[in-house]
Structure formats: C-alpha cells, structure tokens
Design goal:
Number of strands: 5
Shape: globular
Distance between the termini: 32 Å
Helix content: 25-40%
Largest sheet: 5 strands, mixed
Strand content: 25-35%
CATH topology: YaeB-like fold
CATH superfamily: RelE-like
Radius of gyration: 12 Å
Order of helices and strands: EHHEEEE
CATH class: Alpha Beta
C-alpha cells in the first residue's frame, strides 16, 4: 500500500495549535496513521460532502482523500460539538 502525504489547510493547523499538548499528540498520531490507511475501519464518510471523519476521543478530524495524487488533506479538526459547522 502506498503512503499518502499529509497536508493541512491553514484552519486545521490553527485548530491543532490551539489544543492542549496532550490532545495535539493524540490527534497527530491519528493523522499519521491516515497516511498508511486513509480509510480505517472507524472512518465515516460525511453525508452531503466528499469528506471523511475519524474520532479521537471527543475530537473529530475532517479530511479529504486525493487517491490520484496520494494526498490526504486535513480540512479541519476540533471538538465534536463544533466541528461539523465547518462542513456546511
């Protein structure tokens, strides 16, 4: 299986930087795993969009997959109460 390159939108990088260090490390570890498997068993395709999401505790990572270029674009990440606002 090919390894995907991980890219961040600016808003996603800022969201990650705002979190506490422990949460940052957990989320970054989950993002690294997406590079090897962009569609893990617990990933969910978000209805009405081309995005996927994975859970990391109370946080969600929204991302898109460009299989042709082997790129995973992290769209945004944040607490489960607020993250889906960025999809609409």
């Amino acid at each position: 299986m090919s390894h995907f390159k991980i890219e961040f939108k600016a808003v996603a990088r800022k969201s990650l930087e705002r979190l506490e260090k422990q949460d940052q490390l957990r989320i970054y570890a989950a993002i690294e795993l997406l590079g090897d498997n962009p569609r893990p068993p617990l990933a969910v395709k978000i209805k009405g969009s081309d995005y996927f999401r994975v859970r990391v505790g109370d946080y969600r990572i929204l991302y898109s997959i460009d299989s042709g270029r082997l790129i995973i674009l992290i769209i945004d990440l944040g607490h489960r109460r607020e993250i889906y606002r960025s999809v609409n």
